[in-house]
Design a protein that fits this description.
Shape: globular
Number of helices: 13
Number of strands: 13
CATH topology of the largest domain: Aspartate Aminotransferase, domain 2
Radius of gyration: 21 Å
CATH superfamily of the largest domain: Type I PLP-dependent aspartate aminotransferase-like (Major domain)
Helix content: 40-55%
Number of domains: 2
Order of helices and strands: EHHEHEHEHEEEHEEEHHHHEHEEHH
Strand content: 5-15%
Largest sheet: 7 strands, mixed
Length: 398
């Protein structure tokens, strides 16, 4: 059966609003035209609102989030520099791998998957670093592989308490524009995001927030960079242009996305994601299953990684959902391959879109033999959404 739309419930790329799609349905244009800055400058100004920074800069590269990681590292560090990082999921692991390929000395803290940044261990290692050999501290704000969110502000408090000068690097690819993120208030020096998640666009833009402290570090940093050079980008951006051909259609889509985010209001965006995520968590509990995230303090509002019981293969749940019900769920990655499936609940999303994903997941789980009560998760989410609808300003009918 091929009628109807596929249901996209992965943690990225996310669903794209019609407004964003239509904004990109246009003829190609001259990116050196005299009126092109009228598109570029307001985008850069509004991105600063989303990153919650007044003092920093936001730069846009035609790349994925991985390109944003590379830009953050290459612009601000030198060969052999030491960085502190925690490995607690596939994406925190990959950022560490990138740093090691650049010849950095990475002090890796291994953390059980399902937990987040180990604050006490970060404090211990930073306190022991009296010579300030550690030049950067990496934080994966929202680990997409395990559905875990870490406390970025607490890491900044540790650095401030110890008067440690290390730069604070944050992977916000699956958090920025979806859950609370405050670049200035949290003292974040490098904040990496991508277009395909909270910004509701296709993949193709790496969006990086850069503090003034990070820009100062770039003056003496000696890792090689060319395509990802902050200086080249910022100098061109001041005039409303780019140092090379930009992804113009994606910029028009980003303009529409920013309009939608700012019209809704960032606090409302965060509240919507929290509410939708809580409905998923209620469903998981009703199924008698557990999240990969080991405690509520780690629960992510953008993706839930759901554990299947021993003896079952989560990849079969994902395959069955896709082939039988045209539902795309996220697979388990690396250490949790075959152990979890993931429901993404971020971006352009509402209650009924979440219910679709939950219903399809229930059917797929039952098809592969999991003892899930039919309708249990859907009912739990429905009731939570009904009970909380009034708080969103929606009409609720008894």
């Amino acid at each position: 059966m091929t009628s109807g739309n596929r249901v996209l419930a992965i943690p990225g790329p996310t669903n794209m609003p019609d407004k964003v799609r239509m904004a990109m349905d246009r003829a190609l244009e001259d990116h050196r035209a005299p009126d092109f800055p009228e598109l570029v400058r307001p985008i850069l100004a509004d991105l600063k609102k989303v990153f919650r920074t007044e003092s920093g800069e936001v730069v846009i590269f035609p790349a994925s989030g991985t390109g944003g990681w590379e830009a953050a590292i290459a612009n601000t560090l030198s060969p052999g520099d030491k960085v502190l990082a925690a490995s607690f999921g596939q994406f925190s692991h990959l950022w560490i791998d990138l740093c090691q390929r650049f010849g950095l000395d990475v002090d890796v803290v291994e953390v059980p998957w399902g937990e987040g940044v180990p604050l006490a261990e970060y404090r211990r290692r930073l306190e022991a670093d009296r010579a300030h050999a550690i030049k950067g501290v990496l934080v994966c704000h929202n680990e997409t592989a395990t559905g875990v969110t870490s406390d970025v502000a607490a890491v900044r408090r540790i650095l401030d308490d110890l008067a440690h000068p290390a730069l604070l690097y944050v992977d916000g690819v699956s958090s920025i524009a979806s859950i609370d993120f405050q670049m200035d208030a949290w003292g974040v020096d490098l904040a990496v995001s991508g277009s395909q998640k909270g910004f509701m666009l296709p993949a193709g833009l790496a969006i990086v927030g850069v503090s003034q402290k990070a820009l100062a570090a770039a003056e003496s940093a000696r890792l090689p960079r060319c395509f990802f050079d902050f200086g080249d980008m910022i100098r061109a951006n001041r005039e409303g242009y780019f140092p090379y051909t930009p992804a113009t259609l994606l910029l028009h889509g980003l303009r529409a996305s920013l309009d939608m985010l700012l019209a809704e209001g960032l606090e409302n965006v965060y509240a919507r994601h929290n509410r939708l995520a809580e409905g998923v968590r209620r469903a998981v509990a009703a199924w008698g299953l557990e999240l990969c995230a080991r405690a509520p303090e780690w629960y992510s509002d953008t993706v839930s990684a759901i554990m299947v019981p021993d003896g079952f293969d989560s990849a079969e749940v994902v395959r069955t959902a896709y082939e039988r019900y045209r539902l795309s769920l996220g697979v388990g990655l690396s250490k949790v391959a075959g152990k979890v499936f993931r429901i993404g609940h971020l971006g352009w999303l509402n209650e009924l879109m979440v219910i679709e994903a939950l219903a399809g997941s229930e059917m797929a789980m039952r098809d592969v033999g999991l003892a899930v009560e039919p309708g249990s998760g859907v009912a739990a989410a429905e009731e939570f959404y009904r009970e909380t609808a009034a708080a969103t300003g929606m009409k609720q009918v008894a």
